[in-house]
Structures are given as C-alpha cells and as structure tokens.
Amino acid sequence: MPLIHFVIALSYAGLSVLLAFILPSVVPGLSALGGVVVAALVLTASVIGHGLVAGFVITRTLAGQVRGLGDGQAAIRQELAEARGEAGRIHKALEGAGHGATARQRLDEMTAEVRVLQSLVDQLSEHQAANDHGRRRGFGIGAEALAATGTDGQAPAAAVTSRLSMPLVAQNLDDAAILDAVREGLRTNQVDLFLQPIVSLPQRKRRAYECYSRIRISDSEMVVPEQYLALAEREGLVTAIDNMLLFRCVQLVRKAKQENYDYQFFCNISSSTLADTQFLRDFIAFMGQNAELAASLLFEFSQKDLGSATAEMVAALRQLAGWGFRFSMDHVDGLDLDFRLLRDNNVRFVKLPAEHVLSAMAEDGPGQGFRLFKRALDGFGVDLIVDHIEEESDLVELLDLNIDYGQGFLFGEPRLSRNG
What is the pTM (predicted TM-score) of this model? Predict the structure, then answer.
C-alpha cells in the first residue's frame, strides 16, 4: 500500500515539473515564473486530493476492521455464554447425582454418551466427505408411534407423547429429493422419535412402546421408512440412522425412569449396525455404563440378522445379556425356531404379524401347529407379540390363542414422543 501511494505522488510531482517547463511555451504571455506558479498550484491540489482519497480509504478499512472485531467479539460472547450454560448443566447434573461414587457414575455416563455421539458424528462426516467427491448420500429412520393411554391406572399418553405438530407423509418425491430431504433433516436435528404401544392381552393395558423415528423435512411434512429405507440400505447409511435412534432411545428411557413411568421400550437394530465393529464396541461400552436401564430397554433384531450373526456380534449380544439386557426377534418367517438358542441368547420376545398367525390357525386342524409353537415359547420363557393388529374381528380370533401381547393401530394411532 505505501508503494502505491509513492508511485501516485511521484506521478503528479513529475506532471507538475513538466507543466512548469511546457506551459510558458504554449500559453501566450505566460512567463516562466507564471508556469512555476501554475505547476505549484497543480502540485498542491494533487497533494490535497491524494490526501483526501487516502484518508477515505484508510477510514473505510478501519471501519471494516472495527466491524470485524465487533462480530468476533459477539461470536466470542456467544460461545462463552454457551460454554457457561454447558458448565452449569454439567454442574447441575453432578449436584443432582450426589457425591463420591454416584457423581463419578454420572460423569462416566456423560463420557460414554459423548463417545457414542462422536461415533455418529464420525460416520456422518465420512458420508459428507464422500458427497464432496461426487457421491450422493442420504439418511433416514422409520417410525411408528404412540396412542393416548386410557384411564386404567397408567400414566396418561401426554406424559411421553404429544398430539401436536404431527406432520404428514411427503408425497411425489423422487429418490434424489428424498435423500436430500433426509440429509438436511439430520443436519438440522429434525429426527423425530415416535412410539407405538404394545399392550398386554386380553386386558389391552399398555406395557411397552416400540421406538422408531421419522425425518421431518418441514413443519408439515416428513419422510417415512417406506420411502427411504431401501435407498439408505443401498447407500450404506443405515448404521448412522440406527446410531441416532439408539441414542435417542437411551435418552428417552432415562427420562421415563426419572419420572417413574414403568414402561419397557423396544429399539430396533439393523444388520448394518451389528456389522459395524467400531460402533458395536463403543455401544457395548456405552450400555455397560447404563446397565441400570436393562429392565426397561430391549433391543430388537430380525430373525435373519440373528441367524447370520458373526462371532463378534454374538459375543457382544451375550455381553449385553450378561448385564441384564433382553432382546426381541421380529420378521420371523416361520414357526420352526431354535427355542434353546433363543433362551441362551436372552431373546425374551418373538413378534409375528397377525396375518401370519391367522393363516397358521386356518391350516392344520385347527391350528394345531401354531398351538404347539405357542406352547414351546411358553416353556422357554419367551413371550409372543402379535403385531399389525388392525381390526376388532382379528383380535377376537387371536384372544382364543392365549396371545401375550398385541401391537397395531387397533390399540392406538402413531404419536410423536414428547421427549424425542
């Protein structure tokens, strides 16, 4: 910058000297002294003009720097306020947890949660890096949800769910739009947790909830698993989806226990997540720090995934079982199960769709095969959940079969979790 000003000054100084010599010869009656005076006036005007322009530039530059400093200070104040708020929350959590071993346990839980979230952030970062190299990525999770609880002595549905802000399923989206919508939903923390009740039969009392999630893409619309699950599988994104759902489930269960709601919560885990070695290790460590949730939190796997589990997966599940965590098996394709394997792996629930149960009852006479199946489940301490129960007429037939639990729209429409 000083060099530029020097060149400009040298230019108008040279021009002034040139005018002093040329003007007397081209302007009639102008003496040599007059030419010097005119040249001096031009030089003076140039110096004044240069000074004004330079002052304006410097003033504008300084103003920009001052604004930048103000913005920087505002950002620092905001970060400081957030840091103070986080410190206050941590302090409050430690105070609420008590002292000594109890405080240390809560701190360990918080550390474990950070590790799980870091695992999720790492995965999302990897997918974003892939996007930057031209590969498209998307995220999503499925969801069903919770209905209002009756006046049968249980907590009202509003304690864990909300009837407000129920978005509709987005329509007419192509694959690219769905992936982009879900990615944006995750980026802006619009992953909503939904719950659907599981009731004991024949009383129809709500005993548990199955946890799912849907991605909100606006205040009025969301995308559901039927739209994005196949895309997520194809793009290798199911693990990141499951990770978010798992963490939300743990937070929900902890909140329910704090408020003394005696429910169980079922959380699905896909084969992709089971195959993610690093996350599986982090998650095992995380659940080890939260073993007190074992009575309330169950993990659900498909029959196919459990049947093809690797040795490392089996070892991880048995470690969870050792801490008291129980499992549920869904997507069962027949009645020929290895019941001892279920018992040994702490599988305490098996899910069958109502349609399959009713079909089995219509077969061998009348439904003897299914009755033997149910008797075997009872003998090994495994409860049967019949899901997708939609009609009262279906329920009437099922009640004759000594079904343990039911799930489906008959027992309540989907509801958004208040704490999700």
Answer: 0.64
Whether residue 212 has pLDDT greater than 60 = yes
Say if residues 204 and 121 touch (Cβ distance below 8 Å): no
**Which region among 70-79, 107-116, 365-374 has the lowest average model confidence (pLDDT)?**
107-116
197 forms bridges with which residues in the sheet? 209
Please, what is the Cα angle at 267 between 179 and 373, to 5 degrees? 120
Are 401 and 147 spatial neighbours (Cβ–Cβ below 8 Å)? no
Handedness of CA 355, 405, 330, 376 (dihedral sign): negative
CA dist list (Å): 114 to 86, 192, 342, 354: 14, 20, 33, 40
Can you tell me the distance from the alpha carbon of 170 to that of 215, in angstroms, rounded to the nearest whole number?
A: 10
One-letter amino acid at 323 equals: W
C-alpha 309/C-alpha 314 separation (Å) is 6
CA 301 to chain centre: 20
- Structure-token pair, residue 404: 């343990």
Distance CA 252, CA 190 (A): 16
Q: Reply yes or no on whether the pLDDT at 97 is more than 50.
A: no
Asked if the model's pLDDT at residue 127 lies above 70, the reply is no
Torsion of CA 167, 168, 171, 174, to 10 degrees: 40
Residue 192 DSSP code: E
Tell me the Cα Rg of the chain: 35
DSSP letter string over 317-373? HHHHHHTT-EEEEE----S---HHHHHHTTEEEEEEEHHHHHHHHTSSTTTHHHHHH
For residue 68, what are its two tokens? Answer: 């930048």
When pLDDT is averaged across residues 8-16 and rounded to a whole number, the result is: 69
* Averaged confidence pLDDT in the chain: 75
pLDDT of residue 289 exceeding 60: yes
Bond into 202 cis (ω within 30): yes
Which residues make Cβ contacts (< 8 Å) with residue 242, sequence separation at least 6?
Answer: 141, 268, 269, 270, 272, 273
Q: DSSP string covering 197-244, please?
A: EEEETTTTEEEEEEEEEEEESSSSEEE-HHHHHHHHHHHT-HHHHHHH
Residue 71 makes CB contacts below 8 A (sequence gap 6+) with none
> Mean pLDDT throughout 127-155?
36
